[in-house]
Design goal:
Layout: E1 3-9, H1 30-35, H2 43-48, E2 68-72, H3 81-88, H4 106-116, E3 120-125, H5 128-142, E4 145-149, E5 154-160, H6 166-179, E6 188-195, E7 202-203, E8 208-211, H7 219-225, E9 229-233, H8 236-239, E10 247-249, H9 254-265, E11 271-277, H10 279-285, H11 290-309, E12 315-320, E13 340-345, E14 352-357, H12 361-370
Parallel strand pairs: 1-11, 1-12, 2-14, 3-4, 5-6, 9-10, 9-11
Antiparallel strand pairs: 2-13, 4-5, 6-7, 6-8, 12-13
Length: about 375
């Protein structure tokens, strides 16, 4: 019974790509920045070979890597969650998804107001915690929806649960998703419910993402079509709009994501368990918290021995990322255009450095290769070293 556990350390970049400057990113390197923190301690990632990946400027190289390692280049144009995960699964995106640094145009907002029957507040790029602090009172008073965006391709709607019931907020997001197509086809429409009173508004865990349908076949589709399980942990289901997924569970952060992964390690299934650990990006990268990022990475490293101890003979563990988000880069709070790491470990895999790969899609191709499935997309498998 073959199983792959593919864990995305959301935003864990390992150094700027050659075209980073064209994205406004100068001298960015998430791993280098995080490694400067006194809270950075990743001995298990070191053993697997993290510091031996091409171009890594942090840590001691150590002995021969226990895992297959590689530096992954993003072939797609963009640096966001959706495009990164889609490319891992085999989709090449020739242009970035649209972003709205000046807010959304009236051609988007007018039909949204008409169909929801509610006014709109904010309509600017904003921090999710700051926006409910600054607009929460007016929202509660008027019932107008707080619409905002970020450096990502997102249309976010915040509403107090006592003013707009959560299911109604989800309905409004579905309306926005129908409107936001074509040139305004943002990657995600996100419901951001909150609770509390003046001066103490807090977001709840009932966030929900409404993503674009993947535009072409992915490794998830091919696994499902060939009778394999595709288990999504965290926001994976939302990123792929449920397409190609046979089972999904949402998580409240890294700790729950790791716990759920451990539970699936104890379960019988044949196929892929695809995990996103979001805290690196959401709580520490965007908030430019170097020490918090380092602590989160060290926490994950401490969980690795238990994860590895539960692996069976035919199990494979893959670790990677979807983009960078350098917490020491203060020019913006945006993601950063970086290479990402790839580490692949299993009892039948011999550690080796595979250099720099041309595309994240090599990961999806490798997943399919392990199950004897020919990828329906461009990507090269990396399993020549399985014994």
């Amino acid at each position: 019974m073959k199983r792959i556990f593919l864990i995305v350390l959301d935003s864990f970049g390992i150094g700027e790509m050659e075209d980073a400057a064209s994205y406004g990113d100068i001298n960015v390197n998430t791993l280098r920045s995080v490694s400067s923190s006194p809270y950075f301690c990743v001995p298990n990632l070191k053993k697997l070979g993290l510091f031996q990946i091409d171009g890594v400027e942090a840590g001691e190289k150590g002995d021969a890597p226990e895992a297959v390692i590689a530096r992954m280049r993003e072939a797609s144009h963009g640096k966001d969650t959706t495009i990164g995960h889609w490319e891992i699964a085999g989709i090449y995106s020739p242009r970035p998804l649209p972003t709205y640094p000046q807010g959304f145009p009236e051609e988007v907002l007018a039909p949204f107001r008409e169909r929801t029957g509610r006014g709109i507040l904010c309509n600017l790029p904003y921090s999710g915690t700051d926006v409910i602090r600054d607009y929460g009172d007016e929202h509660v008073r008027t019932g107008d929806l707080i619409v905002y965006t970020s450096a990502d391709s997102v249309f976010q709607i915040a509403a107090h649960e006592d003013v707009v019931p959560v299911e109604k907020l989800y309905d409004y997001c579905r309306i926005a998703r129908e409107i936001l197509t074509g040139e305004h086809g943002v990657g995600r429409v996100i419901a951001r419910p909150f609770v509390g009173e003046h001066g103490s508004y807090t977001r709840t865990s009932r966030r929900h993402d409404f993503s674009m349908q993947p535009p072409s076949v992915t490794m998830l589709d091919q696994l499902q079509e060939n009778g394999r399980d595709v288990i999504a942990v965290g926001k994976i289901r939302d990123i792929f709009a449920g397409k190609g997924i046979t089972e999904a569970v949402y998580t409240g952060g890294n700790a729950e994501g790791i716990r759920r992964t451990l539970e699936y390690l104890d379960r019988d299934f044949e196929g892929l368990c695809f995990v996103n650990l979001v805290d690196f990006d959401m709580l520490y990268g965007h908030r430019r918290d170097v020490d918090g990022y380092a602590e989160a990475l060290s926490d994950f490293d401490r969980s690795l021995p238990l994860l590895l101890s539960k692996m069976r003979e035919d199990d494979v563990l893959m670790l990677t990322a979807d983009h960078g988000c350098d917490p020491a880069y203060t020019a913006t709070t945006d993601h950063t255009r970086e290479y990402t790491p790839f580490l692949m470990y299993g009892s039948r895999i011999r550690g080796r450095n595979l250099g720099t790969r041309k595309t994240f899609a090599d990961i999806g191709a490798t997943v399919l290769q392990y199950f004897g499935i020919t990828p329906a997309f461009s990507g090269e498998g990396m399993l020549e070293d399985i014994e």
